[in-house]
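Give me structure tokens for this 635-residue protein.
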Amino acid sequence: MCSILGQINFGKNQTNNEELKKLNSLLKHRGPDDEGYFNDEYVSLAFNRLSIIDLQTGNQPIKTYNIVSIFNGEIYNFKELKKELIDKGYKFKTNSDSEVIPVAYKAWGTQFLKKLRGMFAICIYDLDKKKIFLVRDQVGIKPLYYFLINDGIIFASEIKSLINHSKFKKKINYNAITSYLSHRYTVNNKSLFFKNLKQVNEGSFIEISIKNQKISEHEYYNLTVKTESTDRGENYYLELIEDKLQQSVNRHLISDVPISVFLSGGLDSSLLSSMTSKKLEYEINTFSVGFDNINYDESNFANLVSKYIGSNHNNIKIQKSNFLENIKKIIKIKSTPASIPHEYPLYLLSSEIKKKNKVVLSGEGADEFFGGYARMQKSAVDFIKLKKFGRFSKINLIKKIFSLDSNFDYKKNFLNYFFYKYNWFSNKDIKNLFLDNLITDENFNDAQKPWLDLINKNKNLNLFDLSLLFFQKNHLKCLLNRLDSLTMANSLEARVPFLDLDLIESINSVPFKYKIKWNSNFSKFASLFSNNFNYSEKFDKNKYLLREISKKYLPTIISNRKKSGFPLPMNDWMNSRQVKEILLDQKTLSRGLYNEKYLNKIIETKDDKDLYDFNGKKIWMIINLEIWMREFIDK
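Here you go.
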């Protein structure tokens, strides 16, 4: 794992290489073990290395066959690709995965990207053709940001290097703020918190032609749900997915340094920990967080799994007292507002892991691909019912019998219904929060564009598979961004076995009914008289295939345990004098952004029925925005 940084100009000798070195030093935490540079009259590249594979000779940039490359990430099938290239007559000087990239490009052109299995952000410079390619992996595990200048492009692994470049002007992007408040993150890769800052799309590459002075983006991989037309039966899919998961874990254990695992005590991390412990000869380190508040503390489940698999377990206690200071630290690290409150414990946990390990396995992707968010991924059941009976929803008896939500206009489409259930702030809430005309329909349209693009690109999908794809393509971005930035801030490489390409393509071929499975036909019938929010995990089982597979590896209590979603006591933690002082002080209000009356209303809201701390989460988002503006816009 590393950092990459570069500037490409269409004119000669226009890069300030001393400035580039200073910007590269801002990324040193991503690669404290080594660094490297390449410069010619058009291109300047910088690199920092965290040594994981081929500790002695794996530094970058790599220059071979008149091709220069730098990359951040891991290529898990590099040995197979290397053998194939050697058979074709190509020569290698190192044992690293990084050298495979330029040689594979030489052999197959950009088609080699389809052969890669791993997580990666790559820059390839073809010296003969005077072309540069900026590549991002198929799912978007590794980040790659950029901004355009008059005569070229500047790119980096993290935002902080780009916004400190002398040619970058810091301006607020209200499209991104609208997306953030709606969805908890910026969904549109071309519309981030700073205006003009962008990210390479997942499964895509940007091609820069110095000769033609042209920049274009191309998709080389399209993630979608391709359910098989023939149902092969539950046993077949159980065997298929277990086999693919075993293969994925094997790939993700390729390393020249010891590996640890995030172990929350939930299904996904517990299964990863158990599989990993069976494959490695040494006792693995596992890590979890705990809380003093017993209503939120789940460390007993992590301890149970650790004892069962024989790991060396480490539990880190999280306190309310230093919560706000750590928010500020996280915002400085990311150069953006934090997306979800979990970022705070993740950062602290990563700092502890780094004391013992350089690599950690994490469970991101399991919920998105295997059906872990049943209330949302199965929300089409309620939507279809509302479409059939919605015109009767004002009749109390009908409304009660079928548990209809009369607050939603049944004439609207599924995306409207999805947002109605998914968004933390509604469009009306956002307009009320800000002063008149600050947030417009244009901002909302930009925030919705990635979702509409998915619908238009996948018109053949049913609403259930479309819901899964919403999470796989959009929601997952938030989690991967969080994981990369907060682990790498501690020089820790995080790997995500549930996002192995062969595994996700396999699970996306499985019929939906095996992902979130009804307990019985009667349960399916009974759902007519309830709603998904109430019956989820009572009438059905989320992540059904993973639960069945896990019975071979885990105690029954863990295999059957309901999803908890890493809860944090946000209503309590946001109910503090310091939070109120920040949000209602003169510096905040004098920005001319917020409606003070509505802001006060959110801060003062107390709801004993708010079991999921939604109001505390809203306050969390607003204070994140304000701290971000103070740190990056005011200065």
